[in-house]
Fold this sequence. Notes:
Blueprint: E1 6-9, H1 13-24, E2 31-35, H2 50-53, H3 58-61, H4 66-71, E3 74-78, E4 82-86, E5 91-94, E6 99-101, E7 104-107, E8 111-113, H5 119-123, E9 127-129, H6 133-139, E10 148-152, H7 156-167, E11 171-176, H8 188-200, E12 204-207, E13 211-216, E14 222-227, E15 232-234, E16 237-240, E17 244-246, H9 249-253, E18 262-263, E19 275-277, E20 282-285, E21 292-293, H10 298-312, E22 324-329, E23 332-337, E24 345-350, E25 358-364, E26 367-374, H11 377-388, H12 395-399, H13 405-410
Parallel strand pairs: 1-2, 1-7, 2-3, 7-19, 9-16, 10-11, 10-16, 11-12, 18-20
Antiparallel strand pairs: 4-5, 5-6, 8-17, 13-14, 14-15, 20-21, 22-23, 23-26, 24-25, 25-26
Helix pairs in contact: 1-10
The structure holds flavin-adenine dinucleotide (FAD).
Amino acid sequence: MRTEEIVVVGAGQAGGEAVAALRMAGFEGGVTLVGDEPHLPYSRPPLSKDFLLGDVGTEVLLLRPPHFYEKHRVRTLLGRTVTKLDRDRRTITLDDGGSLTYGTLILATGGHARRLRDPMAEAAPNVHYVRTIADIERLRPELVPGARLAVIGGGYVGLEIAAVGRKLGLEVTVVEAAPRLLARVAGPDISAFVHRVHTEEGVDIRLGTTVTGFVPGDNGRVTAAVLADGTTVGADVVVVGIGLVPRDQLAADAGLDVADGIVVDEFCRTGDEAIYAIGDCTRHPCAEHGGMRRLESVQNASEQARVAAAAITDDPRAYAAVPWFWSDQYDLKLRSVGIAADYDQTVVRGSLDEGRSAAVFYLKAGRVRAAEVVSSPRDFGAAKKLVAHRAEVAPERLADLGTPLKDLLTSR
Length: 412
Ligand SMILES: Cc1cc2nc3c(=O)[nH]c(=O)nc-3n(C[C@H](O)[C@H](O)[C@H](O)COP(=O)(O)OP(=O)(O)OC[C@H]3O[C@@H](n4cnc5c(N)ncnc54)[C@H](O)[C@@H]3O)c2cc1C
């Protein structure tokens, strides 16, 4: 087992889990965690949910309490940006001019919220992005009852913000360029389900159109978004949720292989044997469908952290976990497992046209490859197993609410 210093760049979900996994795996050498935010590793999902609502404080977001890092001898350097990676000298440079030498380096740099390329929006104090605690602390005071909220982007984050907006009594409009909500991450049936629920909750949804500009107001603020279809959306506050750009520049500048994410193998190794990369910043082999894929989820960040720690501590095991994801909107608990990319049949369980609970299964050659489950934790637990086993099931039993899903597991 290596005992020389391990440096982790990025103190987010993946970086935080990596330092813990290294200690769990028995690594005894020095561990340093460098992060440019002022916080210890924290969980981002509540940022667009409970934390934005003001229901939970910052301390609840922390992955682990401060004493964990002391107890496990993890040196934390927070509020420090790594500006350069010198692979020959195995050294990283910090923005305060300092440097650190590593035996093994783990890049866990996550990503930036994708920006609108609009100078007025860039400068406007009422146009917001949601990636960090600081972003939410800027946004929250603007979410006052009766204000008009324009959400640009109908993906998970945008829709969670829309749900919080409605809960807080704002008038909410969602603008989505694709012809349906959640187009990148869910199948058409769940898109339609979610569309219905948001409409029932009073959200004005504009699909198939983009924002082409903004109407200026006082103090550099914008007062409306101008859409490509010629309409405008009045706005006191704008939230942009149009995806993530991986922070892979450090790796690219150091000559590592980068392709919209740092390219790693199934052990999270880059092309440099001393450097690993994990989390949102990576592009990695997809065990499910082959090819390379970038995933943005807590499950992926945490699993890659464990995979990298195992490889570093000479107990390599390839990343083979089935991806899963969750999103909370109003009372809906949306859960997905597997990647609904390659299927020849969908099976709906429950009704998509009414109510708040349903599931959609994606099958290939009669075997379950992916599932999206709304507000049924028990069905989701079973769906995970059906997907993991690629269970062969009779579609009519899958669709039958009278057949518990767990029975399909045992009758395989
Ligand atoms: C609002 C929101 C809601 C979400 N909801 C869900 C959800 O419901 N379910 C789910 O599964 N996932 C959700 N996600 C996604 C999930 O949070 C991410 O997939 C996860 O945080 C990725 O972890 P990471 O460590 O790779 O990246 P991050 O958590 O982004 O951490 C990377 C860290 O590295 C720092 N960093 C980058 N470059 C440097 C540098 N050069 N020097 C020093 N530090 C650096 C960054 O500032 C950041 O702190 C959500 C994300 C957001 C933003």
